[in-house]
Specification:
Elements: E1 3-8, H1 15-27, E2 30-36, H2 47-57, E3 64-69, H3 73-79, E4 84-89, H4 92-108, E5 113-118, H5 128-136, H6 147-156
Parallel strand pairs: 1-2, 1-4, 2-3, 4-5
Bound molecules: 4'-phosphopantetheine (PNS).
Residues 7-9, 36, 39, 72-73, 101, 104 line the site of 4'-phosphopantetheine.
Length: 159
């Protein structure tokens, strides 16, 4: 059984993330989405909320599981018995950082591969940060995040 982990902050999950999750779920037997709980920034959504949002939007994918982790990604991947880390690449700007992370993770555990998936072009400019900025200025979130979670994001910015 081939298990992949797809890690991130998911603050909040976007349609770009969901697209990668769906495509990865067709390639691997099991995809574990790992929500980082101790990122450097103060998140908009608490880790438990991010997990709940992800569970809500992936409920149609039976081989996708949502979990949270803190500490090293390779430790989480090992715990999940995953042989692959999935990363999405949007633009060339993502590449340098992701290459560094992939090489570091490979040095930490040579048995775990990082596999990159190119984002769908229609989502290449979407990021969780952009979504938050848009929401803060009461912009329209349609098409950027799953419909199911638009209300939850708006709630965070209601005056
Ligand atoms: O969605 P993000 O914030 O770009 O995701 C970044 C993430 C969670 C993939 C990255 O920060 C990560 O892997 N963090 C875990 C700590 C770790 O293993 N760092 C690399 C070795 S120091």
């Amino acid at each position: 059984m081939k298990t992949a982990v797809y890690p991130g902050s998911f603050d909040p999950v976007t349609n770009g993330h969901l697209d990668i999750i769906e495509r990865a779920s067709k390639i691997y037997d099991k995809v574990v989405v790992g929500v980082l709980t101790n990122g450097a920034k103060t998140p908009l959504f608490a880790a438990e909320e991010r997990v709940e949002l992800l569970k809500a939007v992936t409920s149609d994918f039976p081989n996708v599981h949502i979990d949270s982790f803190s500490g090293l990604l390779v430790d989480f991947a090992r715990e999940q018995k995953a042989c692959v880390i999935i990363k999405g690449l949007r633009t060339v700007n993502d590449f340098e950082y992701e290459l560094q992370m992939a090489l570091l993770n490979k040095a930490l555990d040579p048995n775990i591969e990082t596999m990159f998936m190119m984002t769908n072009t229609k989502y290449s400019y979407i990021s969780s940060s952009m979504v938050k900025e848009l929401a803060a200025f009461k912009g329209n979130l349609d098409g950027f995040v799953p419909e199911k979670i638009i209300g939850k994001i708006k709630e965070k910015y209601k005056d």
